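Folding follows sequence. Below is one example:
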Amino acid sequence: MRFARFDERGSLTAVELGALRSLNAALLTARYELQSASAVWDRLQCGGDVADMHEANTTFPFYGQAVQEIASGAAAYERHVALTAWRYTAAAVVLGVTVLQRVAEAKPPLAAATVEELCQEPTLGRLHEALSVPVADLLLEHPHHSAFPNEREDTARRWARVRDGVDHAMELVVEIAEDEEAAHPRTKDEAAGCLLTEHCPPHTDPVYHGVLEPLFKLAEEVPFDISRIIKSR
């Protein structure tokens, strides 16, 4: 999805617009790279299955060894890209929702320092708060309402599903800490203050699994929602 078209003289400041554009470009790049990395990993998994059959009756295991060595690096790279994607995508959602809400409610522009802070990876709790903002209620009725009769309900459901996913991610962070016998976090409230990228050890199942892809979609949609509100005025 492309970035929304904005009038440079419109309701957004240069800082707000620049930050939104930069995060959008970052998350799209990370998303495409993740798709590529995941395709490589899937291909190597298939290669491993073939190697197992091929070497079942041979004493030379080099085919399987090669696949395993490459797959190990591919898996590490895929996780690295996913965590990078998470950092920029989560920030894009938090910044986007904050800007959308302030535009919808006709509040003063965000200070440059605030924008810069919102561009950093948010804690899981801060992301959960952003996903709890009633975005569907802030959007005006679509100009072609007959073509989108249940738009608000659908939007609210999609945001709720991602919010539930982040809620589950906080539970997983607590579980991982317990398994690792770490002192922190021990409660969900403590997990809310954590950064996902710092609590997703390489030897565990990805905490972002099932959340990152729908989060991508929300992050891409928010600038268009902001543009829609601005153009309606």
User: Anything to note?
Assistant: The helical segments are 14-54, 62-104, 112-118, 124-132, 135-138, 151-179, 188-192, 212-231.
